[in-house]
Design a protein that fits this description.
single chain, three-stranded antiparallel sheet, rod-shaped
Length: 281
């Protein structure tokens, strides 16, 4: 009787182990009954199923996964060979569809590799090397991500992000590309210098023109003021002379003495000189 009870409890325990299972929050499960899917479980916790081999639980990852794609050579629109190294972030969104199509993660990565490389090659072939390296890189990768996500959806896979880690030139033409880039930069620099020199000459010419006009106007105004002053002086002299010609002549003679005579000057005058007349008096 005790043996029967022990066998009963052993059977109960075995039944419990084969019917009760837990689903981790990082996993999702497909329940198969005789190889046919009957239920999908995405809620973490304790769950029940029929004992094997009636029902079997297939576990799949529910997290965001990352796949580092091997570097590949791709040709750009301007016929430049590029070594592209990228990675892919993806997840299983439909475990049943995933099981029915690719079944395992290694096979899924192979399909992702094929699809992403195909989309990269097609999209990068529409752009020049300069756009891929700098200008439109983000937009290009967004387009590749959308197209890859659409292509992997029939496999129960969602491609969340495709990113370029590195874009290199093949070793055999690196130096020639660098030399062409250097020559292009030198050409651009010379062009900018030439344009700057031309602009400098324009500014200098305009400045010289303004300077000449300003000096001419200033000289004109100075001559006008000088002429007005001389005219006023002549008028004053004329009015002074007309009031007392003798005194005016005497005053002008004294002014002349002041200009031409000093302590070291010896003056020789003829007797009929007007200058001598004042000194003689």
């Amino acid at each position: 009787m005790k043996r029967v009870i022990m066998v009963f409890f052993i059977l109960i325990a075995i039944l419990g182990f084969t019917t009760v299972f837990t689903v981790d929050e990082t996993r999702q499960v497909v329940i198969l009954q005789f190889g046919e899917p009957v239920r999908i479980i995405k809620t973490p916790g304790l769950h029940f199923k029929l004992p094997a081999p009636l029902q079997v639980a297939q576990h799949f990852d529910n997290r965001l996964l990352e796949y580092d794609v091997s570097p590949e050579e791709i040709l750009s629109k301007d016929k430049k060979s590029l070594i592209v190294d990228n990675y892919v972030r993806w997840r299983i969104i439909d475990p049943l569809l995933f099981l029915q199509t690719v079944q395992t993660e290694p096979i899924a990565k192979t399909r992702i590799d094929d699809i992403v490389y195909s989309e990269l090659r097609r999209e990068l072939g529409l752009h020049n090397m300069s756009e891929i390296i700098t200008e439109n890189r983000e937009l290009i990768m967004e387009t590749v991500t959308k197209q890859s996500a659409a292509a992997t959806k029939p496999y129960g896979i969602e491609v969340v992000d495709v990113r370029l880690k590195r874009v290199d030139l093949p070793q055999n033409n690196e130096q020639s590309i660098y030399r062409r880039m250097q020559a292009e930069r030198i050409r651009q620099a010379n062009k900018f210098r030439s344009e700057g020199e031309e602009e400098s000459q324009k500014i200098k010419a305009l400045t010289d023109k303004d300077k000449t006009i300003i000096l001419a106007n200033a000289y004109k105004e100075a001559e006008e003021v000088k002429g007005e002053g001389e005219a006023k002086a002549v008028d004053i002299y004329a009015r002074a002379f007309s009031k007392d010609p003798d005194f005016y002549e005497f005053y002008r003679t004294l002014e002349t003495y002041k200009i031409i005579l000093d302590k070291k000057t010896t003056l020789v005058l003829p007797t009929n000189s007007k200058l001598f007349d004042i000194l003689n008096q």
